[in-house]
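Dear colleagues,

I hope this message finds you well. In preparation for our joint manuscript, I am sending the Pyrroline-5-carboxylate reductase (Catenovulum maritimum) sequence together with its predicted structure, so that both groups work from identical material. I would be grateful if you could confirm receipt.
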Amino acid sequence: MTQKTIAFIGAGNMSASIIAGLVKNGYPADNIIASNPSTPKLDALSAQHSIKTTTDNNQAIEQADVIILSVKPQMMAGMLGDLSIDKSIFSHKLFISIAAGLPVSRLEELLVTPTAVVRTMPNTPSLLGLGMTGLYASAAVSAEQKQVAEEIMQAVGKTVWVEEESGIDKITALAGSAPAYFFLFMEGMESKAIELGFSPEAAREIVSQVATGSTEMVRQNDISIAQLRTNVTSKGGTTAAALNSFNDSNLTGITAKAMDAAIARAEEMAKTI
Ligand SMILES: NC(=O)C1=CN([C@@H]2O[C@H](COP(=O)(O)OP(=O)(O)OC[C@H]3O[C@@H](n4cnc5c(N)ncnc54)[C@H](OP(=O)(O)O)[C@@H]3O)[C@@H](O)[C@H]2O)C=CC1
Ligand SMILES: O=C(O)[C@@H]1CCC=N1
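The corresponding structure tokens are as follows:
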């Protein structure tokens, strides 16, 4: 794998997940630098992973081959506009954006110098090496740069390239935002378990074990997800009663509607940032 120096601009949740995944996968900590305006997150990352840190984005970008833009989409223009380094050096570097809803064309405008930009959409399970990242490369990105971006994101999970940039918004709904959907569902089960009299610890443990077991059955089988569901569902039994209740509320339609809302929000963000 490439051992290029990687700078993370913005040391929040998503950067922390990718950094942890990279280091766990053996990426040299000396080749990772994180930049953030406040120090507590930097101190934690430095203590946990022995990576380099700075509060100066210019310094981080200057020494890196690959720059991962990890600030909130709404902060990107301000952050890039505040840089005081000579932007002509950008043409020798690879920029990877993880920002939701921020088109490559807008990033290119903000970076000023013609620059290779890969737009990605990772998710927080990258922390465990179980990430799912969508990638989109603009025409300016070389085959070698595409490979570098892919290798970095594959160090923290699986990757999928999309041909059209609109595919990134779809991956945002399907993977970037999606851990939260599962957490919401698990929260619902956890609170009902507590209402039924289980201790919070037992409720969490049961929900976690059921989720892990179910996920592993999908991962370790070629059986369709629908068939796995059917296998649990005895005719006239308890599962059928629960599923009928979900279907009465159109869970499938609700899920599709929620994913459409995520895509619509990404498209809306693209027009405003
Ligand atoms: N969280 C997720 O699951 C996912 C997030 N993303 C994308 O990742 C990006 C980051 O999200 P997330 O990690 O959740 O957000 P966080 O708020 O956790 O992290 C953003 C970080 O950027 C820092 N920051 C703010 N201004 C600057 C600046 N000028 N220069 C450098 N750093 C700055 C913030 O510092 P401070 O707090 O000290 O102000 C903060 O630590 C977003 O663009 C989001 O769309 C993509 C996929 C999944
Ligand atoms: O909620 C968001 O906008 C970001 C992108 C995907 C996950 N978090």
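For the figure legend, we might mention the following. DSSP finds twelve helices and eight strands in the chain. The beta strands are 6-9, 32-35, 52-54, 66-69, 94-97, 116-121, 131-137, 157-161.

With kind regards,
E.M.
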